[in-house]
Model the fold of this input.
Amino acid sequence: MFRKLSYAACAFAVGLKNKVDLPDSPLLSDNSVSKLNLQRCLMPRVSAGTGDCQLYVGDRIKRAVGFPQLTACCKPLRYKDFIISYDTKNRIPNWVYEHLQYHKFYKDDPCDRRVNVCPYNEDNQTGQEKPKFHPDCRIHGYHRADVRDYCDTEYELGLMADPANYPFDSEACAETQVMTNVVPIVPGFSCGPWFDLQCYIREKLVRENKSVYVCSGPLFLPSENDGKVQMRFDVLGEGEVSVPSHFFKVGSLSVEIKSVWHYCA
Done:
């Protein structure tokens, strides 16, 4: 017997503003762009075999927990290990959905010869350089954000799908650097409560429950000024990338109920 449980938390981007100078980053060359599997946005990928573990990650998520409602301005984009609902109006993701599994993080078999290939992890054993931010050519150029939009601003490039979630998969780790996965954050945001929440999901929820579905994304919440409720937010660069006021991260997991407890109050 199984029961769906949800773990939810909200991290707030407040108060931390410092001058940040980000270098320009060239767009991908034609050869680099060709490495993106554009068919992922057109049809599901089903591997040879049976069982949910063989289904494309988006199909597994949709079957297990479902997707948030899509809007007119969003474009669903498939990647190897996560799916993004991209907001073409604000030029940031609406949400990013990941399926985190125990066997992709930890090695229990002494014969497992996988090495940590994600250059963002401290125990990376390959010595390779960190992948650069790159655009997704499935998005029209008018609706794309660019790293140059962040130059000479008070904001940094934040990632919704964390590269640390893919320690043994260089392709999935590199795909987290796509600009459709990027949102503006204040300096230090990803090192505070947001980082603690990500570690909690990886080190506790995934380790104890083997499989966790995680949805992350930005929020635009109104503020009250002189008795009036207003929606105000910054926009960055020529692309007018919208800066959210808050962020959310929700994890859904399945647990086996071995005994039933009744509480009375």
